[in-house]
Write a structure and sequence with these properties.
Blueprint: H1 2-40, H2 44-57, H3 61-74, H4 77-90, H5 94-111, E1 115-123, E2 128-131, E3 139-141, E4 144-149, E5 151-158, E6 165-171, E7 176-182
Parallel strand pairs: 1-7
Antiparallel strand pairs: 1-4, 2-3, 2-5, 5-6
Helix pairs in contact: 1-2, 2-3, 3-4, 4-5
Length: 187
């Protein structure tokens, strides 16, 4: 009897919550449909903005894949690579992994022509880092891997209860660099 009551209770909860959830899915699907129209028209920045809104409204793996495609069309290969790799967390099937592996291999080859691959660690881990100028797109958390263009870069580390730290880094194209920052506890 108790199992039947639980089953009925779960069914009622799903029915009560379905309209709000379905509205979010519908909103996301409309945004994604509008994004696809923009993508097909070659308006990749507008498509990226709409696919990102769709993902924020209701996260789906295919939105992440579309975001990766937009970044690739816009020439932002580091962001495209990040999105392709994020996509594999949603759908790690052999078919998807094979498809994304070929995309990421191609992108890494292209990136190595003008970028270096930088692995950034800190102790304690989980530090917020800002690479270059402060912007929403340049804020990450350790540990992380970034593809940076050849040249000079500043990396700013910040962690609660630790003194902030800044490091300068020179990146050469095609190289792999490991950066470690020991952060001192503030007293």
């Amino acid at each position: 009897m108790q199992l039947t009551f639980r089953t009925v209770a779960v069914a009622v909860m799903l029915l009560v919550s379905a309209p709000a959830w379905a509205g979010s899915v519908e909103d996301a699907e409309k945004l994604a449909a509008d994004a696809q129209v923009q993508f097909d028209a070659g308006q990749f920045q507008q498509a990226l903005d709409l696919f990102t809104q769709a993902y924020s409204t209701f996260p789906k793996a295919r939105y992440v894949f579309s975001i990766a495609n937009c970044y690739e069309k816009l020439g932002n290969l580091p962001r495209a690579l990040d999105a392709y790799e994020m996509f594999t967390q949603y759908e790690p099937t052999p078919e998807v992994l094979g498809r994304v592996e070929s995309e990421t291999k191609k992108l890494k080859g292209l990136l190595a022509q003008e970028h270096g691959e930088v692995f950034i660690f800190s102790s304690p881990s989980g530090a917020q880092i800002i690479i270059g100028e402060i912007s929403k797109q340049n804020v990450y958390q350790t540990p992380t891997r970034r593809w940076l263009k050849e040249g000079e870069h500043s990396i700013f580390f910040k962690k609660d209860k630790c003194a902030p730290r800044e490091m300068r880094l020179t990146v050469k194209k095609g190289e792999h660099v490991y950066i470690y920052a020991g952060l001192k506890e503030e007293k």
